[in-house]
Design brief:
The chain has about 210 residues and is α/β, with parallel strands linked by helices. The protein is globular, with a radius of gyration of 16 Å. The chain contains ten helices and seven strands. Helix 8 packs across helix 10. It has a seven-stranded mixed sheet, sandwiched between helices. The longest helix is centred in the N-terminal third of the chain and has 15 residues. It binds the ligand CCCNc1ncnc2c1ncn2[C@@H]1O[C@H](/C=C/CNC(=O)c2cc(-c3ccc(F)cc3)cc(O)c2O)[C@@H](O)[C@H]1O and magnesium ion.
């Protein structure tokens, strides 16, 4: 019977990466997606920009919207200080199951809380469920038409504080026009575009980094 793309990505990790070594997991996925089968991970080029933002922010609390196979989850968590917590939301059970195994292979399960469910349902519950006050960093990489409604929801739920950083993937390709328009024109954010390329291709894409001003 036919395997799914996430299942093939997990197989590549289990074959080529070293257990407990997050960077080897990241490398194995990038190798597979560059040379065998494209997949919508943030990838190595935009991943370096992600790494630099994570290192600069040095967050104690991180929220990721859209886990997929856990590539960016592992990439972010591998750079977090020991006490830090990363919550990642994934509503597709198949993808969540694969991501859990990728995260386990990387040895990062104790840093990462993967919540199976939709961002719209879970964002209002994160404070009470996980004792979170606010997020220092949010990585948006789920359905592109959900970036704006979920950002407004995070504002309404008081999950952002003065200085919280939003980092959004794919603001050019596939594109998130309504989110960009809002975040770049809102007096409540200071935004910066990091030009890059769509993962594993020469097409333009980029990350938008926005600071919530309170
Ligand atoms: C209720 C829907 C909104 N809330 C949600 N809550 C939790 N998880 C959600 C989610 N939406 C989507 N997800 C999950 O995130 C993942 C979806 C990511 C969507 N990403 C893209 O479409 C994407 C697409 C491309 C892409 C670019 C060019 C191209 F030709 C084809 C694809 C590149 C990327 O980097 C991308 O991120 C899936 O695992 C999905 O199950
Ligand atoms: Mg993406």
């Amino acid at each position: 019977t036919q395997t799914t793309r996430p299942q093939r990505i997990l197989a590549a990790v289990q074959k080529n990466a070293t257990r407990g070594d997050p960077r080897s997991v990241v490398k194995a996925i990038d190798q597979f997606c560059r040379h065998k089968e494209w997949a919508m991970n943030v990838g190595d080029e935009k991943g370096c920009i992600l790494d630099s933002v994570v290192t600069e922010v040095n967050p104690a609390t991180v929220l990721e919207l859209g886990t997929y196979c856990g590539y960016s989850t592992v990439r972010i968590a591998s750079l977090l200080p020991s006490h830090a917590k990363l919550i990642t939301l994934e509503f597709d059970p198949g993808n969540a199951a694969i991501a859990r195994q990728v995260i386990a292979w990387a040895g990062l399960a104790d840093k990462i809380q993967l919540v199976e469910g939709a961002s719209g349902d879970w964002i209002p519950k994160l404070k009470e469920k996980f004792g979170i006050e606010t997020f220092d960093l949010v990585f948006l990489d789920h359905w592109k038409d959900r970036y704006l409604p979920d950002t407004k929801l995070m504002e309404e739920c008081g999950l952002l504080r003065k200085g919280s950083i939003l980092l959004a993937d794919n603001v050019i390709c596939p594109g998130t026009p309504d989110y960009l328009e809002y975040i770049r024109n809102s007096p409540r954010y200071k935004s910066q575009y990091f030009k890059s390329h769509l993962e594993y291709t020469k097409a333009e894409d980029g990350l938008e980094k926005s600071v919530f001003l309170g």
